[in-house]
Amino acid sequence: MAIDKKWVNEFVNVTAKAALASSYFIGKNDKIAADKAAVDSMRNELNKMSIKGKIVIGEGELDKAPMLYIGEKLGNGNGPELDIAVDPLEGTNFAANNLPGALSVIAISEKNKLFNAPETYMEKISTNVKEKNVVDLDYSIEKNIFNLSEYLNKKPNNLTACILDRPRHRKIINELTKLKVNIKLITDGDVSGALLVTNPKYNVDIFLGIGGGPEGVLAAAALDAYNCYFQGRFLFKTNSDQTRAKNMGIKDMKKKYELKEIVPGDTIFCATGITSGDLVSGIKLEKKEFTSETLVTHKSLGFKKILKLKKTI
Question: Nearest 5°: phi and psi at 94?
Fold first, then answer.
């Protein structure tokens, strides 16, 4: 069952208000305050809505997060039952240090139609291909690049790979360099990194590497609307990680998840810019008004747009 399109504007308003709240802390070198402002605003706006919402991906479990915690009920209790995944401030360092790419992100789906990802690492790969078996987490870097090169009819030295700049990725980066692939390193923000494959204007052919599991689900909600390819596999470092995953219903700890398993139902995804980045422009303040840009997708309608809003503060 599709989610009514009337909710698009309401959820855009949620991320725009959260982005605005966080924007007051841009460049203040206080990522905790920037994040708290976004969290407080997002929770406040969600509670005004006529929904029966439930956080399935949030700021953490109840003992770690007083607000927007996993399992928290939101909305006024009237209206549709919706699962909600949030990252009120993706790129806390970007906001704190006035760097490009800070976002306020939300994804919603019908009840029980959004994967409840544990807070652990995830191997990820995303590309703008329609077929299976072009790229795969089990393939070598070389095989993935050569397959993608053939599929896109590009030489490897004309491909660009986006990857988080982390010591854990040194081997992958070295292999990509050996293959003469162009590399776009990002310091944070792997939701936006995964989405750079959606449009040729971003000049990114593949996103890969290890990042947060919850961020993987958020990115998947948008990638699904673009009919892109995504694959993810959780990495569990400790026994407690595995126990938590089992309690969330994960049975196969080494399973590779495809898009249809992560987001089996209809979704709406919104990402509003706090600071300007590759995907969207940041918040602009002028007298008693603010302007925002939000990347919005609505799967069932095939809706994929950047919406600009100008609102009174």
Answer: -60, -45
